Structure formats: C-alpha cells, structure tokens
User: Fold these one by one.
Assistant:
Number 1:
Amino acid sequence: MFKTVVFKGEAEGKNILILGAVHGNETAGTRAQQEVIKEIKEAQHILKSGSVTFIPIVNEQAYNQDIRGVEDNLNRVIKFHENPKTNEEKIANQLIKEIEKADILLDLHSTHCENDQPFAFIDYPTKENLDFLNIIPVQTALAGWPDIYKNNQDIENNCTEEYAFLHQTRALTVECGYHKSIEAVQTAKQSILNTLYQFEVLAGTVTKTEKKIITLKKFIIKEKEGKLLKNFVHLDKVKKGEPIARYETGEKVYSEVDGFIIMPNHDAKINTECFYIGEKS
Ligand SMILES: [Zn+2]
C-alpha cells in the first residue's frame, strides 16, 4: 500500500493532503512532491501551522508498471468497498481515510500528449473551491464534470473530488500537462507550494493566476469504429455545426455549440468517451 510523508507545524491549522500517481503513469505530481519533501527536510521552507500529508505514489503497483491502473481506474472507485477485490479497491479503502482527515485535497495528475496545456478540474465550484482554484498556476479550469455524468447510470464518478466534496474537504484536481515534461513537474510543484503557502502550512507568498472557466456540456461515446476528423488537441476551438468525428458507416458527429474540444482521445476504444465538448462560462 502507499507510503505517506507527513510534516507538522507547531501551531494548529489546516491539514493538507497532496496526491500523486493516482493514475500510475502520471508521474509529474510524484516528482514534484519528492522535490518539495526534500526541500522541507533540508529546511529550505519554514513550517508554520497545521500539517501536510504527501502521498507521492498512490497507486504503487500501477506506478511500477508505468500504467494507468492495474485492474480498475482508481479515480472511478474512490468509495468504501465492503469486500475490496481489486488492487484499486484496496487502495480506495485506505485513501478515503486520508481524504476524510484532510481539510484540503490537491490531486495531481498529468496528461498523455506532448504540448498539452495544463488545467484544473473544479467539479464542485463552491466559493471555497473557487478561492482555492485562484492560486493554482494554470489558466484554464473545467467545471461541470459531475453534471454531464449524473444521468448516466453506467458510468460511476467516485473520484477523489467527489469523495472530498461529500466529506467537507476542499478539493481540486490539477492536470499538470504532459507526463514527461519538465513544465508539468514545475506546474505540479508550484501548485503544491501555493497551496501550502495559502493555507499557511509553509511561510511564503502566493502568486495568483487569472482563469478561464470552461463548462463541460457533454461527452461523446465512440459507438462503433470511426475516427476524429482532425488532429484535434485539448482545448482547440470548435464551431457549432462543425463535424468532429466520423464513423466508418459515414455518419458524422457534430459540435452542438461554439466552444472547445476537451480531452480528445484519438485511440478511444468502442463504448468509451472519445471527446468532450465545453463552453466558456
Ligand atoms: Zn489522471
């Protein structure tokens, strides 16, 4: 199971939880945490109050194999499992205890394509979470994820943000950019430091980043063989009525709004999400 590294300040304060490699091959958050842990141990930072719990590698088996998950997508099974069977269900049962203890959760992920822009998910845009979002060093945030899935019984959410929301823990997911890029590690590291500064676990000054919030409108399931019509990248603009994908039968999928293509997956398997459409809020 995962290892935690905890630092405590002398004064009472907020308890922060930082996660990396919830998806085993998304290692920018792991490397960033390792750097910050080293710096705290070397007394390069001043501990003020509260505590921080680092979990640089949440899904160790998946991390060791450089894969997303061993048996499940861990970020879809974050709940209590009465009889945990898979590697990920066992991790979830341990991880939820950490989330329940935390006041603030920062879940660091990274993405699969080179040049991917970093962004944050704000699944629950409460005032507290929007304030938290302000200090995350990315320019784009995606809202509306729970809404687009709420009428779909086949796909359960059960992600870290949802579990946190249900247990009064502030939470954001940051997609720091392409896994293997140095910039993604830097985005992850600045996200960690800003969080620790903002909630006064470490002494330091936060710089805020202006945000564009995009609300997800729908996800598109790939129903049969076919492909996306362009080499779309995440956050590309699309026009209402623009054809986005075509099935081998000739049938096309069009954008219903002037907006953005979100997380296009050119290699999507049949019956999985191949892209999302979002609109600027
Ligand atoms: Zn991920």
Note: The radius of gyration is 19 Å.
Number 2:
Amino acid sequence: MRGVQVHVVDSNMTACEKCWRDAHAIPVGDAVKRYEQLCRERQCTPEDQAGPAARWCMRCRRWTIHQHAGVCTACGDEPKP
Ligand SMILES: [Zn+2]
Ligand SMILES: [Zn+2]
C-alpha cells in the first residue's frame, strides 16, 4: 500500500488539469502514469492546462490562471487573488 496519492506538481511546470482529469476518468491502472503519458503525447493549450475553473490573466488576456496553482500557464504570472 502506498496510501493516498498526492497530486505532485513538477517544480517548473504547472499540472495540466485536462490530462489530470482524463487520466483519472478510467478507474483502473495507474492514473499518475497515464497522466504523465498524456502530458507527453498531447500539445495542450494553456487554457486546457489551467482547467475549467481557470481565472483571467490580465497580462495574457486569456483564461489561463491555473485553478489550483494560481499561476498563469501561459506567462507564468502569479497574481494575487
Ligand atoms: Zn494536458
Ligand atoms: Zn498570463
């Protein structure tokens, strides 16, 4: 038993919400491995990565502030909420 899996965010890359969701849509196998594979294969847009609840980035003028990390997936800006 490895216990509860933690959502690990790479130090220099914000997690991709779209791939994360899709990886966990299938209830069998290793979702984390599937997630890493999806991220490599896909060319996700910053909007995809930021998730459906992303916030508006003033700098990019796009919905690219990551819904959990609070960091813009396009420019890396981290505005205060
Ligand atoms: Zn992705
Ligand atoms: Zn931005």
Note: Residues 31-41 form the longest helix (11 residues).
